User: Fold these one by one.
Assistant:
Number 1:
Amino acid sequence: MSDLDFVSGSKPIRLERGEGASLYTADGTAYLDAGASYACTPLGHSHPAVVEAVQEQVGDLTFVDSSYPVAARENAYAALVAAAPDGLESAWFCNSGTEANEAALKFARSATGESKIVAATRSFHGRTMGSLAATWKDKYKKPYEPLAGDVEFVPYGDVEELAAAVDDETAAVILEPIQGEGGINVPATGYLETARELTADAGAALVLDEVQTGMGRTGEMWACQHAGVTPDVLTTAKGLGNGLPVGAVAVQDWIADGAASHNATFSGGPVVAAAVHATVSTLVEEEWPAHAADLGDFLVTELEAALGDAVREVRGRGLLVGIELKRGANRVARDLAMNQQVLALPAGRTVLRLLPPLVIDEADAAQLVDALTATIASETDAQS
Ligand SMILES: *Cc1c(COP(=O)(O)O)cnc(C)c1O
């Protein structure tokens, strides 16, 4: 079995049930889910509030299109706009992260009348043609070209290169506040603030892709809130429905006013809307973002103490943590799963990514640290 096979869908672990931060196979073996299946379950697996809301809604009214007013959609909308950074007063629902970014780029183009998109090296914004055009990795793009062009890439975190790229013809700058797939890259203080100023001066839209960083993961509801930056467009998906397929785009008024025709058949369907309402209101009311901040600090401190020189760096914010290894991350992820019953994700070749459900407790975090320590120590032994 190659490393690639393992991470691309043939994991030899047949899961049957989930609860909190744990996943179980049919024989009852528990796995600690330190990846939340790509950050999709911030409240943990099969959270009762979400399960109940979805079960009720699917029985009452599974679907009507978005031209009919229904309570589930109105509640989801109200919860999302209330939880969004101040200044983002309108939102539109879609079904995934790539669709959210696709819409964001379309809205920016129609509101500005310009076409150029500025994106960052090592970005990931999704795999449909438009979002893919703003995604960095050639492996994802090359076989599908030509894409929806006019994208200029600048080195992530470099304010001077960003300043040089943003001009009067720029429709949007699209950035992840912390890069996820690209390796948990945290930009220096001031980067997002500068991006905010540059786009405002140029009349361009600042699009922040919070598909991975949002929903409380970094210790604030949205990662941009650490910098006090409000984008013109914020995109979210992954954890928005705690595992149901839903995304959203929250926008400032000038973007909403300038948006041309755009929609999707399943936009804000009642069942996913019920999941969004339950997820967002539970996260906010039970203050899970603050818990993520505390647990993230605990986890990083413990990891640094336990791993020391066995790794190059532990970085991140809240419960979005990257460990820069001295060797391949796929292999470490596989050994963690097979020998320690801990599920983690690679983010690039040498970074192991931890994005557990926000509901993990200190015992879970300690288990995670022990599992990583055992795995990385044994790998180091095997190497020498
Ligand atoms: C996963 C991800 C996407 C794409 O989301 P999909 O739901 O897979 O389309 C976009 N942006 C970021 C930052 C992501 O992590």
Number 2:
Amino acid sequence: MHLDFPVIIIDKDYRSESTGGLSIRALAKAIEKKGFEALGVTSYGDLTSFAQQQSRASAFILTIDDEDFREGRAEPTVASLRAFVKEIRCRNEDIPIFLYGETRTSVHIPNDVLRELHGFIHMFEDTAEFIGRYVIREAKAYLDSLAPPFFRALTHYAEDGSYSWHCPGHSGGVAFLKSPVGRMFHQFFGENMLRADVCNAVEELGQLLDHTGPVAASERNAARIFCSDHLFFVTNGTSTSNKIVWHSTVAPGDVVIVDRNCHKSVLHSIIMTGAIPVFLMPTRNHYGIIGPIPKEQFRWENIRKKIESHPFARDVKAKPRVLTITQSTYDGILYNVEEIKEMLDGAIDTLHFDEAWLPHAAFHDFYGDYHAIGADRPRCKDTMIFSTQSTHKLLAGLSQASQILVQDSQERKLDRDIFNEAYLMHTSTSPQYAIIASCDVAAAMMEAPGGTALVEESIAEALNFRRAMRKVEQEWGADWWFKVWGPDDLSEEGIEERAAWILKPGERWHGFGMLAEGFNMLDPIKATIITPGLDVDGDFADWGIPAAIVTKYLAEHGIIVEKCGLYSFFIMFTIGITKGRWNTMVTELQQFKDGYDQNLPLWKVMPEFLAKNARYAGYGLKDLCKQIHGIYAANDVAHLTTEMYLSDMEPAMKPTDAFARMAHREIDRVPIDQLEGRITSTLLTPYPPGIPLLIPGERFNATIVRYLRFARDFNERFPGFETDVHGLVKAVVNGKPVYSVDCVR
Ligand SMILES: *Cc1c(COP(=O)(O)O)cnc(C)c1O
């Protein structure tokens, strides 16, 4: 494989005609002759930014000479050298760093700095060729050490160029070359992606399905990095990881304890396994932000009471098989896992934390016990801990890259054979090898100290964004400005103490009421931005800016946000964030404010939206906000959506039985107005927020029907702002749309 990792040389004389300049350029030339690029710079400018170069370099050579140690200069020279070494080493322990200088100079370098170096190169003692060979040998050894097991094997295989007689049918990409459109595809994705797209008949790569060879070595490597006892890569997303965890431990008729605010894959798991779900109810504030499940609900006495009053669960004698909670909600709420373990060890067999949004937490002390599995975390006596993580959501994984982490208990170890039967049930027999490689590489990237530095940078950038938003408010947006949801007191700089992000009982900013002390924290890398118009009590102001308008505006200006609610939307600071990328967000929001204040015409500020929705021709930005806000306020939508999620959902059938009625067509397609009292066969999920509202087997209550009526009427009147309710079936009768839900007959 051709690798493009230059040797970076830092020498203030790099371009000068002095002896030093000539000598360093001779070294650069010798390095280039050996096939490595040498990149010379005369200074590193801002050190922290420069240190990012560690990810693209194969070695650093730093020149230092006697001049630098003249009277009075020794101290600053050593200080800057030390700072350089520290900035590199806090990201990368292994990259070779060489000092290049005159012989006498080396005695000035203190030991703590020398220790971090790969060598001191004596300027005039050896030939440039000799030194070049030495540098390149070290650089190569370093690069050779980088690739984790599976990625290494895959690149070797793809390079090898052997002819394949096995699937996939495109034979390393050759098939694509036989047609023009195929060639386009080939050119776009490139040779390597296609050569590396191999099938599981290739023995030297090992098998994902039975965890052998390089795949297994990679999973072990990742387990070590994530500090879990077992780790399994999953190539079909955390949607599949959740189903695997469930099918490995839940059977028909089992009682399971589930966060009502869960991803639909967990509800699918309930349906597929035939379990009887007993739900824990999270709090909500009137911004529509879902809060934590109060600590009281986790106490075994309270769970037991819930089971005893549940129409189907109360007859089950066995203890619940699994508890699944969303660990990091969309808005970034986390639970103290050790407290949950303490409350439920032994009472429930498996605690499953759906950490789709939290794979980064193990790599920074900031998160403490507020994630499931990590270094030095105590084992439960009896209960097993599972975490499912979407590598692709916050780390550097390809879409669908996911993993399952397991911590054994003191008394039980995971039976990997039994577990794998469930794994096989949900995994394709033709897994995508590029996804496996990305799981492997994403894990290797998080190895200390690099991983810690990456997470630290995400947190730091997220905090800088929050500070920048407050600054705008103080300097510019005094009349109105967007708020970033979070604690009121933020320090001026740096990463704060975790304590600042703990949700304290009764604080107004969160609006979740009297939470237990220390039970929850907010992950600052999730930034929920609140638009004006609604306060945390659910009261509408005279004017307001529905978030959907802001996000549509942003989309037209090249910013796609993660999720949008009524008066809030949210963005994330993944490890892919670059310094100051959030600046564009801040400036676009300022542009929006300008546009709003001046009521600029939509044809000017949102032309694409207008082209699709001619109904709003002649509107200004402010007019549009006013109208949509008015409708929301008139219908008291904030209270309505909060109430509907908190309303009593009466289970009338087991979810799996209600769902099965669909397969047998024992259902009626019931229009919205007749839904009250009927039992749904399907999941009903409004977007936003994308959290399932009603689950197969539950009855429609009046509040939910009222909401659906509102959504229907609103959608008719305001095209472009439709609330999409997944589970509603649309039909056109006499030229008018009719929305129905498939209900049990
Ligand atoms: C996204 C998500 C999933 C599913 O993950 P995919 O990798 O998209 O399949 C599961 N749980 C939660 C909480 C999620 O947000």
